[in-house]
Amino acid sequence: MKKTTIADVAKHANVSKSTVSQYLNQRYDYMGEQTKERIEKAIAELKYSPNILARGLKQKSSTTIGVIVANILHVFSTQVIRAIEDFCNEKDFHVIVCNADDDPVKEKRYIDMLRAKQVDGIIAFPTGENVELYKGIMEENYPVVFMDRLIPGITINTILLDNEQAAFLAVNEFVKKGHERIGVVSPPLTQKVTPRFERMEGYKKALEHHGIEFNPDYILSGEIEEMHTKLKKMMRLPVPPTAILAINDRTLIEILTYTKEEQVRIPEDLALINVDDVSFASIYNPALTTIAQPAFEMGKKAAEVLFDLIRDKGLSADVKVYRFKPELIVRESS
Amino acid sequence: MKKTTIADVAKHANVSKSTVSQYLNQRYDYMGEQTKERIEKAIAELKYSPNILARGLKQKSSTTIGVIVANILHVFSTQVIRAIEDFCNEKDFHVIVCNADDDPVKEKRYIDMLRAKQVDGIIAFPTGENVELYKGIMEENYPVVFMDRLIPGITINTILLDNEQAAFLAVNEFVKKGHERIGVVSPPLTQKVTPRFERMEGYKKALEHHGIEFNPDYILSGEIEEMHTKLKKMMRLPVPPTAILAINDRTLIEILTYTKEEQVRIPEDLALINVDDVSFASIYNPALTTIAQPAFEMGKKAAEVLFDLIRDKGLSADVKVYRFKPELIVRESS
DNA sequence: CTGAAAGCGCTTACAG
DNA sequence: CTGAAAGCGCTTACAG
């Protein structure tokens, strides 16, 4: 089944390829009515559809962008991708999705391959490594937007949650309910991953703001695997925390596994707030008080900024960090 | 910043474009050691990376496949996509993700655009419409694999859960626990969407197998919005069901919203099993008994089958329906 | 062992 | 108002 090409259409309509191409690109300026009709008919009869790859070769655009997430299984990433895809669909663009698994080697490989595929731009949740790679991209003015994470020394447009504010909202809510012994649970803080790091900062500032003394025993940070033991240890302190802020959905699951096992009552024995409005928040027993991220808006913004860069050939007037407001959703766990 | 092309490399290395191309494609058969080295050096110095679009134009491959899901926000779809992407990554392929939202018009648009982009194959969760479109594709031997849904009259390789078995497992578990009044909750059964339809069939067969009389009052099907009222009605029957099979995760959420609101105790007042091992199954109170789908295996299989088709130019010897076994995970709700 | 030439399917000045 | 020609960046017989 040989594909029909523009040449076939031209022959069938008795015009030149150029004229067909003009027609396809809506340059009807000087085109005769009859020519137009003949071409239209030929296209319909041959069921012709142009090869976008060939067009892209000439026009230097693949009408495709790449999105590199850590892992598409994370709900936040999924929502961001959905928003980006909706935006792209309106512009007749497609999106290639890549999972870097927080692995800088995979990240670099994907970026190189996407660029080899002439992708018009990339939205990435950067691993934080590959600084040289991104520096090079910056210098070339290749369109890139960062999502969720900042890389020190790299000035690239970035979409972020107001992470400090997120922690602030949680601590405020706890204080309002009378808590003073407020703990926080986070994945490892060794790497300066933006969301974790900033949320911790916000937590500390909020305590200070409320005149609560900072207690290092109430900060739990570690790999998911060791979280259970660490949690047990923290809750068995002579004076344990009465409220806990879970820094993301993964840590929330660990905490709930623990409270279920140990039959800890929420919020009586332990109040709980987490960042990310998980799917089961309102049906859980008790319903979970959460801090929601506007994931769809953030994804949409990332797409908008990227398309502006693409239009302006990467020469954005000013590189910005866009901060989005988190929202406290009070339910029963706080 | 003009991109460096194969011509630049050729000039720099003092050879012809052909030779550079041979080098790039590892056809070293007769290539002189020095030539090789000179090219290698030139590539490194110019930081050359080939334009895959141009290569694709000649080779008639975009090393890209399309995946059309109903909605990437569904966990099952996400897992399937992740498995497909991992598979593609090993083959140096990329995947374009599209959300058809169960809208046949969007579905058709995506398929047309993906094909115009010379995508090498498509994995789709078909809406069930666009029968003519798929018939045409079939006749052209264009590589397509269906996921999750069958379309009557279209013989295309399809990956499915053994849906009857899924319902069977649930009913068996209920019967084992002494239940005889077993209900089922499903989205609308009007359209013959494969999973719903087959799971209902399995439910009926299972009842028959256990000698339980089929009671139409225990079958609830409807839009998500009206489910709550219908649920209330069913539970207020003179003789209400004592166990419910939720046909997917969306209906599960509705049921749990209801039971939470009405303080129905699970499993004492109502036993519950749902298809899809949701993320909160083990931390819910009570932990949920579920039927898990092997989503990753299913996604991987879809990719394997598609790549076989691509290799064989769509001329697969035999079109098959691949059935995957569901797994009963007994927790506390049954 | 390597190069000149044609071609993949388009677009785009330019000429007439 | 329309066509011939060159070119986008590759690959691939074929010749030598």
UniProtKB/TrEMBL annotation, chains A, B:
UniProt key word DNA-binding: yes
InterPro entries: HTH_LacI, LacI/GalR-like_sensor, Lambda_DNA-bd_dom_sf, Peripla_BP_I
HTH lacI-type domain ranges (all copies): 4-59
Any one GO molecular-function label of the UniProt entry: DNA-binding transcription factor activity
Protein name in the entry: LacI family kdg operon repressor
UniProt keywords, alphabetically: DNA-binding, Repressor, Transcription, Transcription regulation
Ranges in coiled-coil conformation: none
